[in-house]
């Protein structure tokens, strides 16, 4: 059973079908695209863990996960726990990882580098502390993904608007306010894999943003390798392993966001027990040949996992998240012919005449481009000068 119905589930469904599995997708939106490719759809709220458990028992499922769908991760773990299915780790540990406030507290308790942070259940409580914060801060829901509800606040005059926005996007009605960690180079947001609690594949990338987008904290592109030094990646790998060992995590894909602060400290900003959105596992398969999707699909139903090993990137890779600069009607995509020799895949999700929204969250993406370069210099130039060769034309 796969919780959710988003586009990023399609490669998981494909991998499952290739291995002979029957796939049930579940959420409360029957028109979601993934339901067209699964064998069966059930209408259930994926944040209602008891309702998901009831359906899972009725369907006699062999495994469950919430790949790329953050709201369903806790429910999937709960079902794994209650039904004795292959699990990614203890239910309590998954709950910690899925709650930004609890996660920050766990990091602090165990001596990890962590920004100063505090969780809140009401706007009034946040505003009562407005003079205690050291600005800038970042305000976000404790339980959202895809950069929804996230805003940077540079002074207390901006705080209330950001807090209201975060509460509006929160499922549980809780937000977190934390010190904004200014970064060296680019932050990283990519996927890794553990087998029986041991990291077998770790990746770092460079996360890029469109500063002119409606939400400048929604990732607009990724590139591999990262801007981190070897020493910084080794430190973060050690700390990621320490974290998943402390939590007792098992065989799992992790979507992990890290950064190096201007203070020189490496930080684990997020670590969630699911595959990331934005096709990150697919990009890693392109770049390394390692198929994390097939591996986690097999583990989820109790079948042996194929060998997973660390591999180097075969070249320099980038993924561009296509999005509109403004709300309107999509007309066409313009890509420089000069760049097309590096274009591995163009995946456009809208057609001419279709309405598109501004880029406020990952769900506003309209497609992706996969690019491979021969040199780091070629990649850097392309990714830092996107408007010179790429245009999403909206009328």
Q: Any overview of this molecule?
A:
The chain is α+β, with helices and mostly antiparallel strands and 395 residues long. The chain folds into three domains: 2-85, Rossmann fold (3-Layer(aba) Sandwich), CATH 3.40.50.20; 116-179, 2-Layer Sandwich (Dna Ligase, domain 1), CATH 3.30.1490.20; 183-394, ATP-grasp fold, B domain (D-amino Acid Aminotransferase, Chain A, domain 1, 2-Layer Sandwich). The chain is 29% helix and 27% strand. The chain has a five-stranded antiparallel beta sheet. A hairpin with a 4-residue loop joins strand 12 and strand 13. It starts with a strand and ends with a strand. The mean pLDDT is 95.
CATH class of the largest domain: Alpha Beta
CATH topology of the largest domain: D-amino Acid Aminotransferase, Chain A, domain 1
**Helical proportion, percent range:** 25-40%
Q: What is the average per-residue confidence, as pLDDT, rounded to a whole number?
A: 95
Main sheet makeup: 5 strands, antiparallel
CATH architecture of the largest domain: 2-Layer Sandwich
What percent strand?
25-35%
Main-sheet strand order equals 10-11-14-18-16
Between the first and last Cα atoms, what is the distance in angstroms? Answer: 40 Å
Instruction: State the secondary-structure class.
Output: alpha+beta
- Count of helices? 12
